[in-house]
Automatic annotation (TrEMBL):
One of its GO terms (cellular component) is cytoplasm. InterPro entries: AASS, AlaDH/PNT_N, AlaDH/PNT_NAD(H)-bd, Lys1, NAD(P)-bd_dom_sf. The active site is at residues 77, 95. It comes from the Eukaryota. One of its GO terms (molecular function) is saccharopine dehydrogenase (NAD+, L-lysine-forming) activity. Belongs to the AlaDH/PNT family. It holds the Pfam family AlaDh_PNT_N. Its EC number is 1.5.1.7. This is Saccharopine dehydrogenase [NAD(+), L-lysine-forming]. The keyword Transmembrane helix does not apply. Disulfide bonds join 197-241.
Amino acid sequence: MAGQTLWLRCEKKEFERRAALSPANAKKLVDAGFTIYVERDEQRIFDDAEYEAAGCKLVANNSWPSAPTDIPIIGLKELPVSDAPLPHTHIQFAHCYKQQAGWSGILARFYKGGGTLYDIEFLADASGRRVAAFGYHAGFAGAAAGALALTAQKKGKPLGLLEPYANEQAMISDVKQALGGSGKGVKALVIGALGRCGRGAVDLLRKIGLDEDDILKWDMAETAKGGPFQEILDVDIFVNCIYLSSPIPPFLTHERLREAGKDRRLSVVVDVSCDTTNPHNPIPIYSINTTFPEPTVPADVGPGNPALSVISIDHLPTLLPREASEQFSTDLLPSLLELPNRQSALVWVNAEKLYKEKVAEAVKAEGL
Ligand SMILES: NC(=O)c1ccc[n+]([C@@H]2O[C@H](COP(=O)([O-])OP(=O)(O)OC[C@H]3O[C@@H](n4cnc5c(N)ncnc54)[C@H](O)[C@@H]3O)[C@@H](O)[C@H]2O)c1
């Protein structure tokens, strides 16, 4: 392969410290013959110098709009809202393929500029499985936030600001310290435990010291009997990590919470799946996404009953920007190495086909 160039842009979303490409994986691309431009970015968890040491060429922050249009631009999150046409190929999460708010306007920018979108959420291998996702660290961080919320609740306080941790170990130490040294004695239930988020949640719970028997791991087999489930009310922390693909009976309801009255162990629900506005949300006991500044929302449990906090943060991996970026870009690397063959490599051919379908829908919707 010769001559492939890639441009890592800065992230503009508040609190976003992750990167689509880590310095270690940038080096692997450089070693394979890529030229990698990296925008200087103070917000990114990795120092600019780490990319320079990896053989990348540093360029000014947010300078990608003036990059040659034949260079693909890689980033993570949505671009700032604008009407400006997009002439480049962008590899990123764009959140516009499921008709989310503003979807057709975003796609219209690509159409007008003659660019292409390869949406990372839809990059899949031959078996249809996503090539790169952030799930593991979402579950890991979500379970940590759940344990912190449990300790805050025991002190009668809401959980305060959550901030990104330098690394996993710092997160584990902080949670253990809040728990008075160990999570031993805490009981948790993870549903979707066999998936990416679920495995991360289970690992965190192990690492903060819960006994293995106190980590209940449920997946499809255990929920097949249909909810609501008493077992959820009998643990301290419930972490929901399922991938909701079709309507299912709810796992937990207001009615069951009220019926349980004071006879309830459950103190914290972490909804990693965050199907908050989905009409089939299996945990219909809250209706907003919570945030790093205000991580919990109280559930309505009926008068006089013990409190129940819900965490429904939809960008949890941001709490572990270093490891999350490292794992994600390692998963993405084989596909990036195929970029020079993107006219024939399945992952890119399918991504472009999907883009063309979606842009055609947007053109119709926008009347272009
Ligand atoms: N909050 C965040 O920051 C964040 C970050 C990443 C992903 N997510 C979300 O987390 C969810 C899970 O993502 P993932 O990558 O772990 O998915 P995944 O496909 O790897 O795992 C999902 C698991 O849920 C199980 N499952 C599905 N339906 C179930 C049911 N009815 N009962 C029991 N188990 C069931 C599956 O068998 C699978 O093991 C997705 O909705 C994703 O969008 C949230």
